[in-house]
Amino acid sequence: MQTFRTHGLLPSEALKKTVVVLGLGSVGASFVADIPYEFGMLVLVDPGKLKVENVERHPLGKSHLGWNKADAAKDFLVKEKGVPAGRIKAFSQTDKEVLPLFTNADLVVCAIDDKPSCRRVNDWCFEHSTPKHNIPAIYGGVYPLGLGGEVIAIPTPREVCYRCAERQRATKVLPPAHAGNYGLNPELLGSADSPKAIPALKASITAIVSEMVPLAWRMLFPGDDPVTPQIRFRALEGWIEVARIPRGSTELEIEVREIGIHKKLLLAENNAKITPVDPEGYHGYLIRRQPWPKLVVQWSRCPSPHGGQNVQFSDL
Ligand SMILES: [Zn+2]
Q1: Centroid of ligand 1 to alpha carbon of 161 (angstroms)
Q2: How far apart are CA 144 and CA 286, in angstroms?
Q3: CATH at residue 76
Q4: Domain of 83?
Q5: Name one GO molecular function term (predicted).
Q6: 109: pLDDT confidence band, cut at 50, 70 and 90?
Q7: Residue 182 confidence class, pLDDT cut points 50, 70, 90
Q8: How much distance in Å is there from the Cα of 156 to the middle of ligand 1?
């Protein structure tokens, strides 16, 4: 079968590109289902199996229950989408085991629901990027309960990396309610025997993947509109705290001003707010649903001191 859908859309260099996708849960699998193909090599990596509680929000259905998620995603792309089997490699191993085989990667997509893994992937991209071969990465995940999610795009890890993004966002990356492995098996909330359906979770995944795909595309085929390092936040339900801002900082001033401007423009609803300072000297930065993502761009590179002067939250 040929992939007629993308004829004339994919640049011819696509067949020279190697794309590595780590994590084939609902976000990773939706990503590979949505991005145009085919590439020279699509590498799918996930040690886990598809379970009944994953199915509702996962592009793969009941017929793949019990399959390794990477194998299942490959099977889906080959059978349902017509991608040549020879252009996909599936691994039921971890990122640690598989990444070393693909130092030629042109893009790493990290859809693993845990921050230490994301940092490890970041460090690998940093170490293996050279002046001749840069390895951009994109990180995507949803928050527990499907309240929203975020995408972090790192076009040149040796200039600005995932850890820079975390630091810029604040030392306390997420508030206690969201701390730890954000997005970790959100389907599993409730008991293992009776997984609970979470309203809006599928919507969060769709929203996050729809941010990831075009960014990934632009990082693979940089034209005259290169991707800047950025974090995109989407809120689906209620107010979500997405960052902490130090008391008395330049960022705080900028954000307070920005929120004031929104109010003056008589926008029907304000979509960001700042909470009172906490005992540790941080204000919370909260966002809520709007039709476009909240964006943070341009932060300082690590390990230089992070003054925070370069950052601004804005609407896309
Ligand atoms: Zn960094």
Answers
A1: 4
A2: 16
A3: 3.40.50.720
A4: 4-237
A5: ubiquitin-like modifier activating enzyme activity
A6: very high
A7: very low
A8: 10
